[in-house]
Amino acid sequence: MTAEPSQELPAPIDLTHYFSEVAKNKTASPFKAFYKFFGIPGIGNFAGGLPNNNYFPFDTLEGVAALPERFKPTPPTPVKPPKQCADPDAGPRTEGSRVVVPKVSPDPNPLTKIDLKTALQYGDALGLPPLFAWIRKFTLEHLHPNVPYKNGPEVVLTTGNTDGFSKTLEALMNLWREGVDPVEERPGMLVEQYMYTPPAIRAKSYKANIVPVSMDRQGIMASGEGGLEDVLENWDSSHGRRPHLLYTVTIGQNPTGGVVSVQRRKEIYEVCVKYDVIIIEDEPYWYLQYPSANALSIKSRGHPVSEDAQPGCETYGSSGYPFLDSLVPSFLSVDYQGRVVRLDTFSKTIAPGCRLGWITAQPALIEKIYLSTQQTTQQPSGFVQSMVAQLLIGTEGALPPRESFFSSSNKTQNGWKVDGWVRWLEGLRGNYERRMNAMCNILEANKHVVKTGRRRKQTSHHNEQNQSTINTTDDDSEWRHVVKLQIYDFDYPMGGMFTWLHFIYETHPLADKFPHSKLSAAHWVLLTREPYRVLPAPGVLFSANEAIQAASGYQFMRLCFAAVDEAEIEPLTQRLVNGIHAFWAIKKSEEIDELLEESPWMEARLAELTL
Ligand code: PLP
Question: Does residue 96 form part of some domain?
């Protein structure tokens, strides 16, 4: 379906049959409705239960923020070169600008006024008006410029995607009571086979069925065995209702690093239309899409990543920014029925402690979530909203003079604007992409171990899966052979912050002596010990259920290349591969037994985690 002029687009479909009882029963707060009267010029406000703003202890909020050009982007995005980016990771401290939120702004326009008097006061659940307006405009005009349903989606602020997911679930899922409610009513949520598990845990508090869908390099599969269509078509209703929600991370998937192409999105979307499924798309890493990963993975795996991995988003309307246009667009870009709920957060673009994000979805659903916001968080913290608003939007005019360490940063508070924000995202992508490549190049170079030995001269050639003979002698009775064994494989992540390593425990010298889940537990312990002392996240933590943990989850470890210092990426990755090689050098069972004695946490996890 291609985008057409707004008046010809279909209206979003009615989703009220999926609204939870809680959502249906939500009514607007009469108190909040009263806020509109507070703005009447000159009114003596005896109505609101508002504390006096003169008694707020903060006279200003201020900080020094980076300039948007601090980090260096990577090609192919055509961008302005970074300004004196001496240290690509930290950037010189002096390259900042002061961000000051005054106590009272003289600006009479509530849509541009940023001050503490407003931000720290009670307010409408939409949030601080200038910030809400900026995020809404950025979302609708630049991030998703062409959502193909009539009048497009709406936006509501959240305190991050954890909050966004929780509120979405509250609106769309009923609590099921075991032994009380009929089994046919038990709700279900489709998830990725390897997943970021907190949303599944949240849905389990509603007693929902968590239903895994098989994945490939990109993400969930629309068709094929265990794919979305297969799961929905063959749904066994003795377990509950056919799932009506799909929770998915489509860009820089956590933990696999996949990116779902436009073609795949269309296929998944059509299956969701057929089975009336709502897609909850959680995208903290959307701007971290790595063009270099496709080419590198072809090298790594010896086969193309996917036929349809090209974004092809030119057909989805221009955002006005080459960088944004180069990214695979959201499910919203193919959402002609209004069944996509998109979660965005500032956690990975500013900081997790911001607790600031937003939801984009069809207006009827956004209204329910807005009412939920009235009754729960009210709005994100005013401290955060005002600082982020000042950073992104700014106010015109000179700053009050400051002395000492602020003086070198007395530049401007005109705000980054959309240009600056996009440039910031490009710089972040550049830095994370370089880290990703630094880690993965070392992993790529070390995925084999070499075994040497002598063998009777019967078999002249040997080449099984994961091993190959690469050298021989011409001795009469024996071959001296050198065998290359592959001990792990992985794909260069197409996006996000994680590398997903798959270990081939079949090639371990003790593969026949221990269950491979035990080898994995011992392996993890060894890696955490001196001299390796690295901490990968065990794959069992990302398995959507126990069966997946037991069948394959233990074969994986997730490595985050985002958090450690730039200078540490290569030495730490080298330590990790040294540890992996040391594990493959273990030939005595007692050594594995000894390591397993130290793995109660892993063992307990394997036994107890009942996702
Ligand atoms: N969703 C995914 C896929 C994540 O990886 C994370 C954090 O790691 C979150 C959500 C949490 O987001 P927030 O900090 O906005 O609540």
Answer: yes
